[in-house]
Amino acid sequence: MRRLTIGLALLAGLVSWPWAGGPQAVPALKGAAGQDSSHGTNILIVGIDSRTGLSAAEKRRLHVGGEGCDCTDVMMLVHLSKDQRRASIVSLPRDSYVEYAKPDGSTTPPRRGKINGAFKTGRGPLTVRTVEKVTGLHVDHYLETDFSGFEQAVNNLGGATVCTDKALKDDSSGLDIPAGTHLLDGNGALRYARARHINRPGDLGRVRRQQRLLAGMLDRLTGQGALADPVSAAYTAGQLLKSVRTDERTGLDDLVRIGRTLGRLPAARMEFTTVPIANFDHRVPGVGSTLLWHPARSRALWNALRADRPITGDTRVTPVPDTRAETDPATISVRVDDTTVAKALRRSRFAVTDTSASAPSVRPAGPPVITYPAGREADASTLAAALPGSHLRAGARDSAFDVAVGSGPVTVRTVTYDRNTAEGAPVTADHLHCATPRR
């Protein structure tokens, strides 16, 4: 039954949150408007960036030094379908630039800011109303938790599975793990979930790692047969209420129902995504760098949830380009020994150096050969997508990307890089969880 703890506490706790006082309830939610409850259930789960109540020793142990902002650091909206056969989990990046809902009794015009700032202004109720305002969805239940609660939940579940094809080290969060699949304790999982300064950097990369962590834990718990009956579900819900705050409308029976729903779902019926972003560095005086949601694609996402439809495979949310690039061509410097091919690659924003002046007078037979630095296989795949049929050859780690055009015909395709697709496109949990963990 621990499935409920992970399905909610971890979903909520994937990073940082501070009220320290046992089971409490935030004020009842008022003014919710939008989606009819007959179209499923929406749960808003947040974590608050605050160090209130943590001793200096706890801060060092959890690696959460510095000052908190008394704002939401993580925000996830969970949609459970009406037929209880699908869960859609949407991460709302904390730097999203939105218009807040008005506080109760306010007569001033609504102001705009990062979505994480709504909590500081009006705590949980204003956070809920702001999410409802910008998504058009009705929030049925609200939960929040803290650093130590997240750590304890992971430890109680026996650890968290994470996997990486490269070593991950982030001094800010304290994360330091080698390549491979690992079973982390609560402290290690917290560091993994909070890391922002590793590949891929920033909030979208961090959010995807949080989603991957959650998917792996859910997969592992399913394999253990967790949440097998109502009695165990009720016990776990009671344990959850010791470390998670809820609104006054959310009680033990609601958590049992939500937990049992999550417990019955196979990985292929749990969807994870991040709100599509149009501008990743929208500068606002007095606010700083913010994220602007993609108007059409984010609207399509909320419309799909409102209509109780799956979000995976919805091309209105995630358009499918003719040739998709998994990494950004602008970050790939390429030397090309053919002027025509060099010009064509520039159209896809590769950073191209034309070396045709030193090209051999007699070209080798066959398709182009791409020589790439060992360790940059993802970038090599992006370049190969633009040159279909080319041969890949790994060079030294400090070598350059070189394209040697052969005597055969060359096709150059325009590739499209979409950061939303690369880092936050809708996927099901079976595309995120890890293989069998190792210690």
What is shown here, in short?
By secondary structure, this protein is an alpha/beta fold. It has 12 helices and 23 strands. It folds into 2 domains: 2-319 and 422-431, LCP protein (Aminopeptidase), CATH 3.40.630.190; 324-417.
Description:
This is LCP family protein. The strands form seven sheets. An eight-stranded mixed sheet has the order 1-12-7-2-3-4-13-23, with helices on both faces. It is elongated. It is of the alpha/beta class and 439 residues long. Helices cover 31% and strands 23% of the residues. Mean pLDDT is 83; it is low at 1-24 and 28-35. The protein has two domains: 2-319 and 422-431, Aminopeptidase; 324-417. The chain is built from twelve helices and 23 strands.
- How many domains? The number is 2
Task: Give a count of the beta strands, DSSP E runs of length 2 or more.
Answer: 23
Q: Which residue ranges are poorly predicted, with pLDDT under 50 across at least 5 consecutive positions?
A: 1-24, 28-35
Q: At CATH's second level, what is the architecture of the largest domain?
A: 3-Layer(aba) Sandwich
Number of helices: 12
What is the overall shape? elongated
Going by helix content, strand content and strand pairing, the class is: alpha/beta
